[in-house]
C-alpha cells in the first residue's frame, strides 16, 4: 500500500531544521504502519517503542528528562543501537505516556540530530495540551484515511493516480470509465486501511462491510472507554445522527439530535468527536473574505471520518455499487459531499468552509482559500450543471474564479452571472470531475 505521507516524511528527514515529528490521526488510519514502513525504506535500523505495552519505559520517562539517559533506556529496551541519522526512533501510542510527550521538547533542544517520530491517537494527544505539551518543539503530520488517489494505487491502478497528478486532461477523459468505476468502489470501501486490505485480499464487498461494522463498533466502544467526563449517550446520539443530517440538512441542527434536550448539552460531546478525529466540522461563513476562520458564524456541518464508514453506518447496499450512477445518487448527494470534503482535507490540506445565504435561499458547498482569494466550490453528485446558488453567490460577491465538481468532464470557461444586457459581468469557471478533485488546488492556481 502506498501512502502520500511517505513523501512528506521524506521531506521531514531531509530538513536540516527537523524537529521530532508528531504523527497524529484518528484510530486505525495507519499511523503505525506508515512510521514503520518509512523506517524500513529509509533507515538502517528502527527502535520501536510502544508505550501502552512497555511499563518500564513509561516509568523511565516519568523519572526525569535527562536526554542521554532516555536514549540509553530506549537502546536497552529495544535492543537496537541508537545512531543519529541511521536509526529511526518510533515512540508509538505516546498518549499513554504524557511524560514522553513532554520529553519531545528536550529531544528537540538537546538531541535534534536524532530522528524521532512520535505516533498517537488524535484524541489522546489533544487531551494533554497545556502543561508539558511541547509547543513549538515538534513538527506535525496529520494522517487521514486513504484518499481516492491512494486507493487507486493500492488497487493496482497507480498509473491512473499518476495521470491525475500530471493533469493530462485529454488522456484522463479517455479513461473516465475506469476512474468512475473505481470511484464507485471507493464510495463503498472508503479509505480505512483495514477495509481496503479486506477488499484486496478477498475481492468481496461483504468482507469489507464486516470490517467497517467492526470499526464502527470499536469507535462506539471508545465512547465509554475514553470519554469518562463527557455524556456518553449524547456522544452516541450525535454520532448516530450524522448520516441523516448530512443527507437532509444544509447545516447540523442540534435540536434534531434529541428534541427533548437543550442544544448546549451537545457542545462537549461534539467537541469530543472532533478531538477524536471521528468527525470533522465545516463552518458557515457569511462574508467570504480571507481569512475564512475569522468570518465564520455559529452554523456548522459535521462530516464523517471516512466515506466508506459513512456508507456502512447508512446501511448502503452493495448492490447500489453495481448501478453505474446509483451510488452517486444516494442520500441526496451526501456521500458525494462527504467524499469531496475528505479529499480536500487529505489531498489539498484545506479546511473547507461553506456559505449559506439568509433564509437558506442559496448555498455553496465549500469555500476554498487560495492565492486568488476565496473560491466557491459547488458539488453536484450527477451530471447536472445547473448551479443557481453559484449565480447568486457571484452576484453578491463578484469573484474572479469559481469551481464546480460533478460527473461532468473537465472544462475552463467564462461564466456570465448577470441577466442585465447593459451591465455584463462574468468570471472564470473551472469544471473538474469528481474523480479529479485532488487536483482542484493546482488547477485554481493556474486559472
Total DSSP helices: 20
Instruction: Tell me the helix content.
Output: 40-55%
Strand content: 15-25%
Number of strands: 13
**What is the terminal-to-terminal distance?**
34 Å
Radius of gyration from the CA trace?
23 Å
Write the layout of secondary structure elements.
Layout: H1 5-14, E1 21-25, H2 31-42, E2 45-50, H3 55-63, H4 67-78, E3 87-92, H5 98-110, E4 115-121, H6 122-126, E5 139-142, H7 148-154, H8 158-166, H9 169-174, H10 176-189, H11 193-202, H12 205-226, H13 232-248, H14 267-275, E6 279-285, E7 296-304, H15 307-313, H16 319-322, H17 326-329, H18 334-348, E8 353-356, E9 363-370, E10 373-379, H19 388-397, E11 401-406, E12 411-416, E13 426-433, H20 440-445
Parallel strand pairs: 1-4, 1-5, 2-3, 3-4, 10-11, 11-13
Antiparallel strand pairs: 6-7, 8-9, 9-10, 12-13
Helix pairs in contact: 1-2, 3-4, 7-8, 10-15, 11-12, 12-15, 13-14
Amino acid at each position: 500500500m502506498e501512502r502520500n505521507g511517505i513523501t512528506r516524511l521524506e521531506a521531514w528527514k531531509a530538513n536540516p531544521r527537523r524537529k521530532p515529528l508528531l504523527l497524529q490521526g484518528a484510530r486505525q488510519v495507519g499511523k503505525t504502519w506508515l512510521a514503520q514502513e518509512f523506517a524500513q525504506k529509509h533507515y538502517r535500523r528502527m527502535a520501536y517503542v510502544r508505550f501502552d505495552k512497555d511499563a518500564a519505559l513509561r516509568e523511565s520517562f516519568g523519572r526525569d528528562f535527562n536526554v542521554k539517559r532516555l536514549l540509553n533506556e530506549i537502546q536497552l529496551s529495544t535492543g537496537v543501537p541508537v545512531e543519529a541519522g541511521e536509526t529511526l526512533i518510533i515512540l508509538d501510542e505516546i498518549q499513554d505516556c504524557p511524560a514522553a510527550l513532554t520529553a519531545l521538547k528536550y529531544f528537540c533542544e538537546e538531541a535534534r540530530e536524532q530522528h524521532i517520530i512520535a505516533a498517537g491517537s488524535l484524541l489522546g494527544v489533544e487531551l494533554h495540551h497545556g502543561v508539558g505539551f511541547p509547543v513549538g518543539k515538534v513538527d506535525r503530520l496529520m494522517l487521514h484515511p486513504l484518499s481516492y488517489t491512494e486507493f487507486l494505487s493500492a488497487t493496482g491502478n497507480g498509473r491512473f493516480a499518476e495521470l491525475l497528478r500530471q493533469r493530462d486532461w485529454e488522456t484522463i477523459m479517455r479513461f473516465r470509465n475506469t476512474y468512475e468505476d473505481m470511484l464507485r468502489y471507493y464510495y463503498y470501501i472508503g479509505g480505512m486501511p483495514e477495509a481496503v486490505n479486506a477488499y484486496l485480499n478477498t475481492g468481496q464487498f461483504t468482507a469489507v462491510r464486516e470490517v467497517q461494522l467492526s470499526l464502527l463498533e470499536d469507535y462506539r466502544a471508545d465512547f465509554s472507554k475514553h470519554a469518562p467526563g463527557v455524556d456518553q449517550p449524547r456522544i452516541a446520539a450525535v454520532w448516530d445522527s450524522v448520516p441523516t443530517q448530512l443527507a437532509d440538512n444544509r447545516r447540523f441542527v442540534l435540536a434534531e439530535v434529541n428534541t427533548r434536550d437543550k442544544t448546549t448539552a451537545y457542545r462537549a460531546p461534539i467537541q469530543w468527536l472532533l478531538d477524536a478525529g471521528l468527525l470533522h466540522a465545516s463552518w458557515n461563513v457569511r462574508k467570504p473574505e480571507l481569512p475564512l476562520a475569522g468570518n465564520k458564524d455559529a452554523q456548522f456541518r459535521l462530516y464523517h471520518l471516512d466515506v466508506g464508514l459513512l456508507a456502512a453506518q447508512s446501511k448502503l447496499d452493495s448492490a447500489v455499487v453495481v448501478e453505474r450512477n446509483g451510488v452517486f445518487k444516494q442520500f441526496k448527494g451526501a456521500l458525494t459531499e462527504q467524499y469531496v470534503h475528505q479529499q480536500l482535507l487529505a489531498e489539498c490540506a484545506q479546511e473547507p468552509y461553506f456559505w449559506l445565504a439568509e433564509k437558506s435561499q442559496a448555498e455553496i458547498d465549500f469555500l476554498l482559500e487560495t492565492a486568488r482569494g476565496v473560491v466557491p466550490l459547488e458539488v453536484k453528485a450527477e451530471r447536472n450543471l445547473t448551479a443557481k446558488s453559484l449565480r447568486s453567490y457571484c452576484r453578491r460577491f463578484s469573484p474572479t474564479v469559481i469551481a464546480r465538481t460533478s460527473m461532468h468532464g473537465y472544462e475552463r470557461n467564462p461564466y456570465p452571472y448577470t441577466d442585465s444586457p447593459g451591465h455584463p459581468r462574468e468570471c472564470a469557471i473551472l469544471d473538474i470531475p469528481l474523480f479529479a478533485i485532488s487536483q482542484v488546488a493546482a488547477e485554481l492556481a493556474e486559472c
